[in-house]
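Structure in, sequence out. Go:
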């Protein structure tokens, strides 16, 4: 699927399904944040297709969230903490400022590209004044809710909340992690 940015350029998007598996994963992730024993986590994941524990949360400080894991720990490209709010509120604009380019419709993601999972701003606002204001000032209607590192073959590595790091299929994230996603790549 493709969308257009503020300048009318098409970019590749991922549409996330709304299904029971993603709803159950949301509850499971919240529960797993309280568990640190690898075997207990793997037992909980039985029946969740396409998701595997990569690193227990004890490896990272509990204060490290998905953005810090993705950019700081995995890619070695720290996002200044003072700018974290901008990263989540206007992800494409902020990442472009940090020399990350949104993948165009005809570009395929590569290993170590970043997957940005987004959710639309409150739907009742998006359909009214916010949409007009956003268009006038080139604001993004979708905000980031989760980040992951693309591993290839439709797989992503990401840190779920303040909990554990998982390898999962690109569309197998908790349902509160967004409706869509897009890819960005660091300029060389």
């Amino acid at each position: 699927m493709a969308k257009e940015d503020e300048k009318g350029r098409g970019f590749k998007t991922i549409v996330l399904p709304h299904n029971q598996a993603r709803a159950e994963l949301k509850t499971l992730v919240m529960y797993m944040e309280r568990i640190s024993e690898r075997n207990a986590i793997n037992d909980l994941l039985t029946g969740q297709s396409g998701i595997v524990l990569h690193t227990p949360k004890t490896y990272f400080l509990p204060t490290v969230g998905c953005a810090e894991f993705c950019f700081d720990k995995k890619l070695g490209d720290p996002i200044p903490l003072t700018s974290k709010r901008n990263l989540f509120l206007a992800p494409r604009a902020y990442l472009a400022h940090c020399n990350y380019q949104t993948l165009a419709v005809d570009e395929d993601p590569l290993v170590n590209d970043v997957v940005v999972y987004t959710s639309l701003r409150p739907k009742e606002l998006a359909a009214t004044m916010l949409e007009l204001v956003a268009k006038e000032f080139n604001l993004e209607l979708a905000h980031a809710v989760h980040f992951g590192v693309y591993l290839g073959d439709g797989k992503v590595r990401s840190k779920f909340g303040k909990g554990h790091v998982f390898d999962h299929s690109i569309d197998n994230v908790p349902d509160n992690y967004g409706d869509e996603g897009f890819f960005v790549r660091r300029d060389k």
